[in-house]
């Protein structure tokens, strides 16, 4: 099975271009005004129109209203909505009823992380497991205890939905991460140099992820 590789936090046209020419499966855009990597929907939409990336487009939101998502969709042809806040099951269901596309739920890794994942069983169509950092909803560059990955992956397999690992993934530690055989990775700061997407870093990470999947498939 092809591994999922999401390059997130694209803030400029050059970022999207680099992602489009990579083996990534998803490109992510942050539509959270308080976030450092926030991008205007109009801008993101214009880049996508010009570049036409083949990757699926993911919009990242934190506790959004239906109107906020609708506003983004006026400009950006999203394939996936990713909720990265404290959204409840009922709120997620409302979003799913309104928008005909998969909705992923970000789960902060903590004691009850697995229980939270189980709570969204049959509702979320995918998960992103990220580090729990006080006062932040992701994009911190901090990794969590990767020994927990197999349990999350097993629960996602039981639910028959994709599961991506996020938080502090870099070219330096991607080899170690892949020893836990995650189904997918979600990277933002780890593919940047001075706040801009770095094509060399993208290549190093994507090569390691796809190479591991190929070896795993052959074994």
TrEMBL record:
Keywords: Amino-acid biosynthesis, Aromatic amino acid biosynthesis, Isomerase, Tryptophan biosynthesis
Uppermost EC category: isomerase
Keyword Translocase applies: no
Enzyme Commission number, as recorded: 5.3.1.24
Listed SUPFAM superfamilies: Ribulose-phoshate binding barrel
UniProt keyword Cell membrane present: no
Domain N-(5'phosphoribosyl) anthranilate isomerase (PRAI): 6-206
Pathway(s) per entry: Amino-acid biosynthesis; L-tryptophan biosynthesis; L-tryptophan from chorismate: step 3/5
Single GO MF descriptor: isomerase activity
Reaction catalyzed: N-(5-phospho-beta-D-ribosyl)anthranilate = 1-(2-carboxyphenylamino)-1-deoxy-D-ribulose 5-phosphate
UniProt similarity note: Belongs to the TrpF family.
Descriptive protein name: N-(5'-phosphoribosyl)anthranilate isomerase
């Amino acid at each position: 099975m092809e591994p999922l590789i999401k390059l997130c936090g694209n803030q400029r046209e050059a970022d999207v271009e680099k992602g489009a020419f990579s083996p990534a499966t998803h490109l992510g855009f942050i539509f959270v005004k308080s976030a450092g990597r926030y991008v205007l929907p109009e801008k993101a939409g214009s880049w996508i129109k010009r570049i036409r990336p083949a990757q699926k487009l993911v919009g990242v939101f934190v506790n959004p209203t239906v109107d906020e998502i609708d506003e983004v969709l006026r400009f950006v042809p999203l394939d996936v909505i990713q909720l990265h806040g404290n959204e409840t099951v009922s709120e997620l269901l409302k979003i799913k009823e309104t928008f005909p596309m998969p909705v992923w739920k970000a789960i902060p890794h903590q004691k009850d992380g697995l229980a939270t994942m189980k709570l969204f069983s049959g509702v979320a169509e995918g998960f992103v497991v990220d580090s729990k950092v006080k006062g932040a909803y992701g994009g911190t560059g901090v990794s969590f205890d990767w020994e927990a990955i197999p349990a999350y992956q097993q629960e996602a397999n039981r639910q028959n939905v994709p599961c991506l690992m996020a938080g502090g993934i870099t070219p330096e530690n991607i080899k170690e991460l892949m020893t836990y055989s995650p189904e997918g990775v979600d990277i933002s700061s780890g593919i940047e140099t001075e706040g801009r997407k770095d094509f060399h870093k993208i290549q190093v990470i994507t090569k390691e992820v796809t190479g591991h999947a190929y070896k795993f498939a052959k074994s």
